[in-house]
Design goal:
Blueprint (H helix, E strand, L loop, with lengths): L1 E3 L2 E3 L2 H12 L3 E4 L2 E10 L3 E8 L6 E6 L3 E2 L5 H33 L1
Antiparallel strand pairs: 1-2, 1-7, 3-4, 4-5, 5-6
């Protein structure tokens, strides 16, 4: 699985499509001119962009190799040990508080 932002995708092409769709429609500077970005193709290994000059003229086509990030969102398997440690810690503090109160109660009599 591959991650773009906070979402995981099953294939590289799906992840690259999501990433490329965020780039489409942006204006960027290329070769000293402002260009409008269009996505013309997505594969498992690259994204093809068409850069249309805002001043008019021929579009430039660029194929940019990209590797999507592996999905690293937390799952329940990741969270379980953390949750168990926190629960054990809270129960330990609660147990210490009970023993402390019992000790204080005995010394008051």
């Amino acid at each position: 699985m591959y991650q773009v932002g906070g979402t995981c995708f099953n294939t590289k092409a799906q992840a690259l499509s999501a990433k490329a769709s965020a780039e489409s429609g942006k204006v960027l500077e290329h070769a000293g001119q402002a260009h409008l970005v269009h996505v013309t193709g997505v594969s498992e290994t690259s994204v093809t962009y068409s850069l249309q000059p805002l001043a008019g003229g021929m579009a430039t086509v660029l194929e940019v190799p990209q590797e999507p990030q592996p999905c690293q969102l937390l799952t329940m398997a990741d969270v379980s040990p953390i949750l168990a440690a926190m629960t054990l810690g809270l129960l330990s503090v609660y147990g210490i508080m009970i023993l402390w109160r019992a000790r204080i109660g005995v010394s008051d009599d």
